[in-house]
Specification:
This protein is α/β, with parallel strands linked by helices. The protein has 2 domains: about 140 residues, NAD(P)-binding Rossmann-like Domain (Rossmann fold), CATH 3.40.50.720; about 180 residues, Dihydrodipicolinate Reductase, domain 2 (2-Layer Sandwich). About 30% of the residues lie in helices and about 20% in strands. It has 12 helices and 14 strands. The protein has an 8-stranded mixed beta sheet, with helices on one face. The chain has a 6-stranded parallel beta sheet with strand order 3-2-1-4-5-6, with helices on both faces. Helix 2 links the parallel strand 1 and strand 2. Helix 5 packs parallel to helix 6, helix 6 packs antiparallel against helix 12 and helix 9 packs across helix 12. The termini are far apart. The structure holds NADPH dihydro-nicotinamide-adenine-dinucleotide phosphate and ligand LJPVP2WV. The ligand O=C1OC[C@@H](O)[C@H](O)[C@H]1O binds next to loops. NADPH dihydro-nicotinamide-adenine-dinucleotide phosphate (NDP) binds next to loops. One of its GO terms (molecular function) is D-xylose 1-dehydrogenase (NADP+) activity. It catalyses: D-xylose + NADP(+) = D-xylono-1,5-lactone + NADPH + H(+).
Length: about 400
């Protein structure tokens, strides 16, 4: 009963967070002003709601291709300033940070333009279509002393760090295999969603697959050494040309070799067939198999809602014992800030602001991490025979 109450309380507070308690050390300094590129569906969850509870953040402006749409979005979310174009937004001198939740194929162009204008960027995942573009974005950010991060929100949540700590403690011995699955229910995205558009950087491996790739690399603290198998099923988009739609994977599955004889499996699906023709198919499970047991994380991507870490240990005689853990907040205050109702996005915003303010973020996603992640996604697309998503046609003029 208490866990049901906990579930309700936690998720109510995540959706309707209380106002900030206080600003850490700069009560009198102005808030950092964020501007949003596009009236994107993810913006409320990823930024607007978490910002309500961050003492240093103001979501100040939004731009959309259609000004009317931007105005409606701004009214709904109490955003004071509306811009009629993305260009106008990045030129707004009152904006400090650009949140970029555009389709992946537009990430490079608008991140480069925003950085060039001196803005920090919180960039949605996956960071861009190619490793070359990701490298260029980070190099520009570095040269200008600006913060740029790929918004792998799930990495900022305590549950991931707890699962990794269990594995790293060696209590279950060496890792043998890591598998990460992110299968979202059919019907979540319409056939003409950006995720099914090749020219916009679509594909399940890009969208849900970037998390699974990131997960296996994070847990093993390493990059793959080879792609062993890679299969996919193509998406069906009635509006797309037969030539481009055949390059968009609705479902992917790949096996990889990691260093030290570790193997990895990743699997994702944006529209899985219903079970028995009517039961929605969902799978958000990651399993780390070790020499003497397993660690399984249920709901590793949206853990605030609900999650479990199941640790199964085998003794010398093969007898199994199981314990379950949860980690909605960091175990001890020195480990990191937060409350059990903080979403992955709220933890992420905390780290972003710490970095921007010159404080030590609890954790971070580095340039090397983002570059390697997309490089290995490109390698899998190569193995599938589909090739990388198209490089941006935008030419950066420094
Ligand atoms: N961190 C997370 O948990 C999640 C991250 N994402 C990422 O965020 C991004 C946006 O996803 P999501 O919010 O679901 O997508 P939406 O389709 O809701 O938003 C994309 C936005 O891109 C703009 N846009 C610009 N050009 C185009 C174009 N040619 N076609 C379509 N849209 C265009 C639109 O802005 P306008 O308003 O100007 O028309 C639209 O609002 C993606 O990069 C995705 O990978 C998505 C979901 C979850
Ligand atoms: O968190 C997510 O889950 C569903 C995906 O399609 C989305 O893009 C992703 O970021």
């Amino acid at each position: 009963m208490s866990s049901v109450l906990g579930f309700i309380k936690r998720n109510y507070r995540a959706a309707y967070p209380p106002g900030p308690r206080s600003a850490p050390d700069n009560l009198n300094s102005p808030k950092i002003r964020f501007g949003i590129l596009g009236a994107a569906a993810i913006a409320p969850k990823a930024l607007l709601i978490p910002a309500l509870n961050h003492p240093e953040v103001e979501v100040y402006a939004v731009a959309a291709r259609d000004e009317k749409r931007a105005k409606e979005f701004a009214r709904k979310w109490n955003i004071p300033k509306v811009h009629a174009s993305y260009q106008e937004l990045i030129e707004d001198e009152d904006v400090d940070v650009i949140y970029n939740p555009l389709p992946v194929g537009l990430h490079y162009e608008w991140t480069m333009k925003a950085l060039q204008k001196g803005k920090h960027v919180l960039l949605e995942k996956p960071s861009a279509d190619t490793a070359q573009e990701v490298t260029a974005m980070f190099e520009l950010a570095e040269s200008k002393g600006l913060v740029l991060v790929e918004a792998f929100h799930y990495r900022f949540h305590p549950v991931l760090q707890r699962a990794k700590a269990i594995v790293d403690s060696n209590e279950l011995g060496k890792i043998l295999n890591v598998s990460a699955t992110l299968v979202v229910p059919s019907g979540m995205f319409s056939p003409d969603d950006i995720r099914f558009d090749y020219d916009l950087g679509g594909g399940a491996l890009m969208d849900v697959g970037c998390y699974t790739m990131n997960f296996i690399r994070y847990i093993t603290s390493s990059d793959p050494v080879s792609v062993n198998t890679a299969v996919y099923e193509a998406a069906k988009n009635p509006k797309a040309s037969p030539e481009t739609v055949s390059k968009v994977d609705r479902m992917f599955k790949a096996t990889l070799s990691m260093p030290n004889d570790v193997t990895a499996t990743i699997h994702g699906d944006l529209a899985p067939p219903y079970r028995l023709g009517f039961i929605p198919n969902v799978d958000i499970t990651a399993v780390i198999e070790c020499e003497s047991g397993t660690v399984e994380i249920y709901n590793w991507v949206s853990p605030t809602l609900y999650h479990t870490i199941t640790i199964t240990q085998k003794d010398d005689k093969g007898k199994k014992t199981t314990r379950k853990e949860k980690a909605y907040a960091f175990g001890d205050p020195g480990q990191g800030k937060g409350e059990d109702w903080w979403t992955t996005y709220r933890y992420q915003l905390e780290a972003f602001m710490d970095r921007l303010k010159g404080r030590q973020p609890q954790t971070w996603i580095s340039k090397g991490d983002s570059v390697a992640n997309i490089q290995w996604i490109e390698n899998i697309y190569q193995e599938m025979g589909l090739g990388s998503r198209p490089k941006s046609t935008y030419v950066h003029d420094s």
